[in-house]
Fold this sequence. Notes:
Layout: E1 2-9, H1 27-35, E2 40-42, H2 48-58, E3 64-66, E4 71-75, E5 87-89, E6 92-96, H3 101-111, E7 119-121, H4 127-134, H5 138-144, E8 151-155, H6 159-171, E9 177-178, E10 183-185, H7 191-205, E11 209-217, H8 223-228, E12 231-236, E13 251-257, H9 258-269
Amino acid sequence: MNNSILVFSDLDGTLLDHHTYSFSAAVPTLSKLAERDIPVIPTTSKTYSELKQIRKDLGLHTPFIVENGAAIFIPVGFFTNQPQGTIEKNGFWIKEFSKPVTYWRSLLDQLKTDFDGKFNHFANMSTTEIVDATGLSDAQAQLAGAREYGEPILWLSDQDTKIEFLNALEKLGAKPLQGGRFLHLSGECDKGKALIWLTELFESTHSETKYTSIALGDGQNDVAMLNAADIAVRILSPVNEPPTLTKENEVYTTKRFGPEGWADSLNQIIFNC
Ligand SMILES: [Mg+2]
């Protein structure tokens, strides 16, 4: 039996700096992982459109998980055969876990009277409003707006009303997830389910290899992924407390923020330095 590692990494606030979106501190570690043939699998709330550019910037040719686990994109040919349950589109084998975004937007429309002015959401926001809420550039904000599966909601009111709003959404069958800046509205999918599905796919296609999954994340929308991984790394965040996990063993919390903490932890766990 061979042993191998899969790295599932959140992007915003984890591999990318929360404020500047820079990943320069992680570059030497990304190179070492590539040399060792250890896949880094971006696992993010971001869209396919955003990932197209970010993968280029990061130099990654690996599968990736978008919109908080709503879909897994696997480059065609990454595995010998097309995995069961995937569709082929734009050079990717895609495993979808969510209904399309139009469905979730229709649920929000039902709550607009009861929660008038208390929230905004991407389909309703101009590029400028998305820029203001995220700190992204105009071009990046346009890509972020190209949702296929889930809808980010910007909460504008108090915490008590937010709980009523979350309850109302759950009654409609939605499973809202809190990210660093946005509430993400989608179906019964999360980063943890996607991690498990993809790890099982690696194991079924490489039957002689035992995979250890390492997940890294800084926010509430990373909890399912961190709990599901063999090793969980909570990346220190400048804006929120480390997420609370049910997993007890093999849980690490970095001392530094974002990509610095990302590099520190993987260097320690994988490269013993
Ligand atoms: Mg994050």
